[in-house]
Structure formats: structure tokens, C-alpha cells
Amino acid sequence: MSSPHDFDFFHGEWQVQHRRRTDFLDPDSDWEEFPGTSRCWALFDGTANLDEIDMPHLASKGATLRLFDPEKKQWSLNWASSRTGTLFPPVFGQFTGGRGEFHGDDTHDGKDVQVRFVWSDVSPTGARWEQAFSLDGGDTWLTNWVMEFTRAS
Fold this sequence. Notes:
The protein has a single domain, classed as Lipocalin (Beta Barrel), CATH 2.40.128.20. Helices cover 0% and strands 65% of the residues. The protein contains no helices and 11 strands. Strands 1-2-3-4-5-7-8-9-10-11 form a 10-stranded antiparallel barrel.
């Protein structure tokens, strides 16, 4: 069951190794890899947090505001991009057994997609995040972005 402190592990500074598809909807597209950095801090006595990720390779930054709903015992993850200056539709979910899974609806290249974020391999010194899109109502998923986080020294 999720708790308001599921993301406490993420507070602080991180080195990030990105691996993402050049076309988020094409399973045959190439992968590109690049480094980045991330910084996360707690809000609302730990029941929310905000991170900013810097991706010089893409000449952009992003931010995620995570909010815990104590009644539903779930998180909303709200992503914003410096490239577009927009806040994307949130994904909702929870942690179970050390794995966080979050789902939502969005559009990409004019197509309706279901979005899945997964947090796994969480430890004091590292974590893994991945994003996948589905075009068929969640029957199949195409992972299109993976971030490996390592605690900055």
C-alpha cells in the first residue's frame, strides 16, 4: 500500500543516464543515450515533492510535481517540460512491493496514448524510471524512455 513517504528516497541530487527511443511510437526506432542531472526536494512535510531534471543533450529541462492523496492512498505525477511550457496530463498510481506503477492518458504526435510510468530498483543510491506508451488500450506497451538514477557524490 502506498504511503506519503514513498518518494522520500528521491530527495537530493542525482546523476541520470537516459536511454530513449528516437520515435516514441516506433518499436524499431533507434535508442539514444545521454547523461543528465536531477534534483528533488520535499514539499508539504514530505507528502509531496518536486524535481527538476536537466537534459543538456535535448537543450531542455523538465519538472515533476508528485502529490499524495491520503484518501485514495495514491500519487499523482504531474510532468512539465521547458520545451513546450506545458503541464502534461497526470499519471496516477501507487507503490506495491517496492515497485511504483502509474497510469494516465495523453496524446503523442496526434495519437491518443495510454501512458505508464514505472519506478523500480529503488535503493538509497539508485533507482530506475521507465515510460511506456500503449496504442491499444493497455494490451501492449512500448517502453520508450528509461532513466537510471545514481546518487550524486
